[in-house]
Design goal:
The longest helix is centred in the last third of the chain and has 21 residues. With 45 residues, this protein is mainly α. It has one domain. Helix 1 packs antiparallel against helix 2. It is elongated and about 35 Å long.
Length: 45
C-alpha cells in the first residue's frame, strides 16, 4: 500500500515540477511525503 502511495506521489511530483511549475516549496513536500511512504513500506516489509 505504501509503495503504491509513493509511486503516485512521485508521479504527481514529476508532473508538478515539469508540467505545471507550481511553487517549488509546495511541490517538494509531495516528494518528501513520497520518500517517507517508500521508507515506511520497506521498513514494515
Amino acid at each position: 500500500m505504501f509503495l503504491t502511495i509513493a509511486i503516485i506521489l512521485l508521479i504527481l511530483w514529476l508532473l508538478g515540477v515539469f508540467a505545471f511549475r507550481i511553487t517549488k516549496g509546495v511541490i517538494h513536500l509531495v516528494l518528501i511525503i513520497a520518500i517517507i511512504a517508500l521508507i515506511v513500506h520497506f521498513v514494515r516489509g
